[in-house]
Predict the 3D structure of the following.
Amino acid sequence: MIYCHGWPSSRREAALVPAGDLRIIAFDRPGYGLSDPAPPGATWEHLARDVGALASHLGLARFPIVGVSGGGPVAAACAHFMPDRIAALALVCAVPPPGFADGGGLGLLMRLGRAPALGRPALWVARRLIASDAWADRIVFGTLLEGRDGVVMTADRRALLLAAMREGLCRGTEGAMADARRYGHPWGFRLEDIAVPTTIWQGDADPLIPWQTSRAFSAIPRARLRLEVGEGHYSLAIGRAQMILSALFAQAGSRLD
């Protein structure tokens, strides 16, 4: 299975997922962690082709893919541009296309992506805060750790996620800024054209990705929505990971080589 990390994060985020006997392949998107920045103007299609090249290098003909939060758009792009290779798609509390997120932090992310003059300094400040031992935990999580999220995100898990974010931003903010630009502009493909079996996972208590945004992905013809009552952002993606992955592989079924 290929795992697409959130924003701003890195391949190390996958350490939060209880893999069991599964082989989880996580990678740094361009500009994050160990990956070089993408060429100017790189689109979600370019990133999807990168995933295809990675899979070919590893000898994977067909594979399921999961996109968590900010990794949702690239996972959806893989399903669109490589339908013959994606056995099943899971979108977990995924960032929706522009136009479906006008308020809150998600709306701010979209606006910053459309205004680099504001986005770059904002990300620079965020990078400094995430790197701070004194401030990172309270700045990144703060009031997000209420309800089920607060139960799931123990101190150890918060430390793992912060380490993943620091790794993602270790060489600068170009990867995060490039993703923000792609989030805030038309994606370059239609969700209606995705023909891969898809499950949309969303918590109705998610403070970062409001559950109403999941309606954007209902345009995918073969998608089914799993709206989990009482689940937040982290409690769904991490606390219910085994359920999500079991469903993903069941959906892939005989489509795997």
The mean pLDDT is 93. Strands lie at 2-4, 25-26, 63-68, 86-92, 198-203, 223-228.
